[in-house]
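Reposting from the mailing list since nobody answered there.

I have sequence plus structure tokens for a pair of proteins and want to know whether others read the tokens the same way I do. The first protein:
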Amino acid sequence: MQRLVILGGGESGVGTAILGQQKGYDVFVSDFGKIKDNYKEVLTHHGIDWEEETHTENKILNADIVMKSPGIPDKSPIVKKILEKKIPVISEIEFVAPFTKAKTIGITGSNGKTTTTMLTYHILNSAGLNVGLAGNIGKSFAWQVAQEQFDYYVLELSSFQLDGVFKYKPDIAILTNISPDHLDRYDYKYENYIASKFRITMNQTENDYLIYDADDEVISEWLKKNTTKAQLIPFSVNRKLEKGAFLNNNKMEVNINEEEFIMETEYIALEGKHNMKNAMAATSVAKLLQIRKETIRESLSNFQGVEHRLEKVLKIQNVQYINDSKATNVNAAFFALDSMNVPTVWIVGGVDKGNDYSELMALVHEKVKAIICLGVDNKKIIDAFGNVVDVMIEVDSMNDAVKMAQRIAERGDAVLLSPACASFDLFENYEDRGRQFKEAVRNL
């Protein structure tokens, strides 16, 4: 019996444990932190051996294979020891792939992947396909493969998940864009992070597809220097393309398999240039799967968007409050600021992952009237923008941030939470940060 050791007792870890046990592995789950009660109950119910707040080496280093949760870095002591013993360390996606015949649509990128994933799922689901949603979202891929029988999976894949992939390939891959993110996990080398993203296409064959942003310089450069066997489907908001998706005046045109799909952009529910790209990527998948034009059109016009991503919360005294807590890097904050068309009070800050704020300068100059720093260490933000805006305030709670913003904002302004940073200094995660923002706004 092969021994499967799982590091991390969260959603992906517990899902993998259930599938591993079902497939005849001897399973052990080890979490250096605490395991949530609901997950403990599931593990105990299935008779799966687990431990928390420790890693017992003699129970781990006898593994045939190790699945590590994406949040655990390769540099952690236990992972180093596992790798020294030449035990393979893989991600959930890699472990699960051989156990399903379903077609997978794998979606990665520094920004836009959640929206693109949700929108793609929405279109496929509306078309009546038997489709699951997994990866970084919702119920773990492993759990679903153990308990459901889907024909398709739409998977949101982070670079951390792709780092643990060696044989897996999506039938259709989407690369939304690449900008510096998580550099702390990649030795502060941008090229390592770029290489990590492109693992999504490394095993693809001539029968597979890679849908990508043709306006993204990093992606274009990589494609010039490297090859993939996949069929390439580009999308662009800047120029017309013979094949793929592009904007033509106020229409989105998608040309795939000699078949054209055209839709007026005003009927697409998502707003903003970056969202047009997300819509193009999702529509390209729908066209490859030969979904009816009517279904695509309907889905694009009734899609609700993603929580914590440019989510309009409330208008109070004619000031619009916007929750963009999911903006955990500079590039995401760039999209948010770029979409603002009124004077903006910007709430920013958190755990900096090696951010370079210079690319936001022009936008801050043009759109931001005040900055509220919400983080434990705001020095970099203050150094970057101190001379650019008139008002710069530091706070250390969401309530204070929102109250200060209300004082500064005037009729017709907007208050935007778009932190450009991770949330772990003051919050559990970006969802917690976004919920606290909405709660504080509702209490004004």
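The second protein, same order (residues first, tokens after):
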Amino acid sequence: MTAGGTTSAFEAAIVPWLDAGYNLARWLLRDEAQAEYAVQEAVLRALRYFHALRGGEARAWFLGIVRKTCFTHLEQRRDGREQNGLEDDHLEVLQWSAGLAGQDPALLVEQSQGRGRVDAAIRALSPPLREVLVLRELEELDYAEIAQVVGIPIGTVMSRLSRARAQLKMRLSPTGQAGRS
């Protein structure tokens, strides 16, 4: 295959999954700038090893590379604590809502608080639970794809997903702990 053909095949296989890779990286690293950097590095690794993708599922293969890249970054910056990496959710909501004329400000605040509670509840999950939840619920991967990305058996995926959902439900209940993370 020519260099141009390889580039075209790479773009067709990987570019559609860049947003999913960024989303996973953002949840794992909890920092938007680090997530962007990790995805860029993952793209370079994917390009370097593109020949290893032999007709397989490019999404799961690429997300696996993103995941490994994120864990490498976490190992490198580990100093005994995980960074909060809190996003400016309120600013995002205001920017998003700026284009929506006639929205009730009280409704926007309520939506922002609800979204913030969900984000806080997801951030409070341990990384193994958070990653399977993000891959399943936000990226809509099936159990087999999640198992491939994370490198664990499907039964472990189901178990972690069940625990993640239970903890999320508990944290989001009126008596839960979502606001205490």
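Reply #1 (J.P.):
I read it the same way you do. The radius of gyration is 18 Å.
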